[in-house]
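Bench log. Compound arrived from synthesis this morning; before running ITC I wanted a structural hypothesis for how alpha-methylisocitric acid sits in the protein. Inputs:
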Amino acid sequence: MIAGIYEGLRAKHEHVRKLLKHPLTLTEKILYSHLETLPDSALERGTTYADLKPDRVAMQDATAQMALLQFMQSGRKQVSVPSTVHCDHLIRAEVGADDDLKRANTENKEVYDFLSSVSDKYGIGFWKPGAGIIHQVVLENYAFPGGMMLGTDSHTPNAGGLGMIAVGVGGADAVDVMVGMPWEVKWPKLIGVKLTGTLNGWASAKDIILKLAGILTVKGGTGHIVEYFGEGADNLPCTGKATICNMGAEIGATTSVFPFDEHMAKFLEVSDRADIADLARKHAAELQADPEVLADPAAHYDQVIEINLSDLEPHLNGPFTPDKAWPISKMKEAVKSEGYPAEVTAGLIGSCTNSSYQDIDRSTSIVQQAIDKKITPKATFIITPGSERVRATIEADGQLATLTEFGGQVLANACGPCIGMWNRTGMKDGTPNSIVTSYNRNFAKRNDGNPKTHAFVASPELTTALAIAGTLTFNPLTDTLTNRDGEEVMLAPPTGAELPEVLGQDLQGFQAPSENGENVQVVIAEDSERLQALTPFTEWNGEDLTDMPVLLKAKGKCTTDHISMAGPWLKFRGHLDNISNNCFIGAINAFNDDVGQVKNQTTGETGSIPDVARAYKAAGKGWIVIGDENYGEGSSREHAAMEPRHLGGRAVIVRSFARIHETNLKKQGVLGFTFADPSDYDKVQEADITSIRGLTTFTPGTQLELVLSHSDGTEDVCALNHTYNDAQIAWFKAGSALNLIAADQG
Ligand code: MIC
Ligand code: SF4
C-alpha cells in the first residue's frame, strides 16, 4: 500500500506546485496528495472546506465504543480503510501492572468482548488490554512518513513524529472514513516552527512543546497545522518528535508534523519496518518541504516561530492548564508568588506522550545516579510504559529493574493516572498537593480526581529529578541534594540511548479480524449498564427554536473534562443514557460559581445539571448552553456533544470553540454558534428564556440571532456567527450526520 502511495507522489506534487504557483510545504504535500480529487484551483487556507481520504483509522476503547455503535447503525458490512481498536483507557491503576490488568479483564469483560467482536465482524484489528497505549502502538506499527490518518483521540498527532498527518477526531468523523466517505476539514493555516541549535544538558524534546505552549497558549494553534523544520528538528530523535506532536493537541492545533529524516528511518528499522525505511529514503524529497520553502519560511507559513534549542531551559507547565510555562530557574519564585504547594508528592513518568526507550533510558540514568550517590527519593515514583514492546525491551535491557529497585511502581501499559484511572492512596481528597508528570494535560481533577492536586507537566527526566528531590523548588542545573551520608551532591544531566537494538516483539496482544465477519455475533445485553444500542436523534421540525431556558452559562475554562468527566465515568462510555449523568458536572455556573449545580427555572430549585436537564427534557423543553473562550478544549470524546443532545440540548453558544468539539456538536445535531460580539456573553441572565431566529433560512456565511427575553420583560438580541457549510446544515436538519449516512444506506 505504501509503495503505491509513494509512486504517485512526485507527479501529484508537480501538479499542485503549478496550481499554487509556489513551492510546497510538507503539510501541503501530504494534504493535497490525500484529497479525494485534485482540485483545479488552490484551496484557501482558513476558508475552503476540503474532502480528504485518510489511509487509516485508529480508535481507543473509551471512544471506540461510541464510534462503533454508530458504525453499526450505518449499515455497512466492512470498514473501508484499515482500522484498529486499542484497549488502553479502561485499565485502573492501583497495585501494579499484573494485578491491575487481571482486574481490568474481569471488570471490563463485557466491553472488551463487545469491542473484540465488533472488530472481528467488521474487519478491524483489535489490540488487547496490556498491548499498549493507542499512540505508541500506532507509532510502532502503523505510522509512516507522508501518510494520513484519523484517530478518535486528541493525541493522535503523535504519529507526526514519524512524518504522518494524524488528526484527532470525534467518533462520528471516524465513522465517515470507515464507511468509505471522505473526511471533511476546513483547509488549515500553517504555523512553521523553526528549530535551531541542539538540545543539551537537562533539556529534552518535551521542553520544546512546553515552551511553545507558553508562546501560543491553549488556543493559539486552533485551525492550524504546526510544521517543524530546521537543523534543530534534524537533530531530534523520532520519538522526541512524536512527543512534541502529541502535546501539540494542547495548543489546539489540528495536528503537527516533522519532515522525514534518518531518525525516522532508524526508528522504522528497529520496529521491523526496514522496507518502509528504504522506500521513504528513496522518496525523501517528497516527504519534506521544498528547499525554497525552508529558505524563506515567512513567505510560506502563516506564522513562523523560532526556538533555539541550544539555550532551551527545562520547563514545568501548570498547574491546571498546560500553557502556563515556567522555566525551571523561575520555579522557586513561582512557588512563592503563586502559593503552589512546594512539596512534590508524586512523580509519574510514561504515558502516550513520553514513554519511549530513550525517555526511560534517560530517566533511569538519573535514578542510577541517585542510587550511586546514596540519595533517598522523597516522592512516590510511578512508571507507565507506553507499550508492551517498550516494556519488554526495558525489562530485557535492565532499566526496569533499576527503576523498581529504587522504589518505582510500574503500572500496566495503559493510560492509568493520566486519565484519572488512578486509585491514589495516602492522599485525602481535597488536600492541596503538587505532583509532576511527563504527561500532556493537567486540567483540575484529571489525575487523581482531587481538585486540589496541582499537576505540573514536564519531561520524564525533570519529573524523575523532582520526584527524587521532593520539591518543586529544586533546580537540578544548579542545586545540590543531601545524601544519606550528609553530603551535598549534584545530579549530572541525563544520558540515554536514542533507540534499542531491537524494539521488543511486534504484534504482542494483537487479534486480526475474521476474513469474513458476516456470521460473527455482536451481543449487547438488554440490561447492560455499560453498553446501549443507539437510537437515532430526532430530525429538526423545520421551525425556529423558541422557549428555551439557559441550562448553564459556563464560566471560564470549560474543557471536555468539565463537560463529560473521565476517570470513574469511563465505564459508561458505551451507554449514552448512563454516561449522561455526568453531563456538565464539572462546569462552573457563571451566576454563582457553583460547580455542576444550576437552578431549575421551572421549579426555582437548585439541582445537579444532568437532573435539571432531564427535568426540562421530560417537560418537552429544549435548552441551550452558553460558554466562554475555547469551549470544549481537550479531548475528542463525542460524549461531550452526545450527552447534551440526549438530554434535550439544542444549541451551544460560546465566545469561541475548540476544533474537535465544534465538529462533534455539529455532527450530533446540536447547534454550535459563536457570539458575533463576544461581550454579548455578559448579556445572558440566569432566568432568560431564549429563542434562535434564522434557522428557516440557515445558510453558510449568514448570521443568526439569539433572542434573550429577560425576566424583567426586556429583551436583547445577539448576532450569532457560525462555520456551517451546506453539508453540515444538512446534518442539523436530519438530526445528526449519522442519520444521513443511515438514510443513504437504507
Ligand atoms: C484524553 O487524553 O483526554 C483522552 C482520554 O485520551 C481523550 C479521549 C477520551 O476522552 O476518550 C482525548 O484526548 O481525546
Ligand atoms: Fe491516554 Fe493520557 Fe495519552 Fe489520553 S493523553 S491517550 S489518556 S495516556
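What the model suggests: The CA atoms of residues 13 and 305 lie 26 Å apart. The pocket of iron/sulfur cluster (ligand 2) is lined by residues 89, 133-134, 153, 155, 351-352, 415, 418-419, 439-440 (CB under 6 Å).
ITC booked for Thursday regardless.
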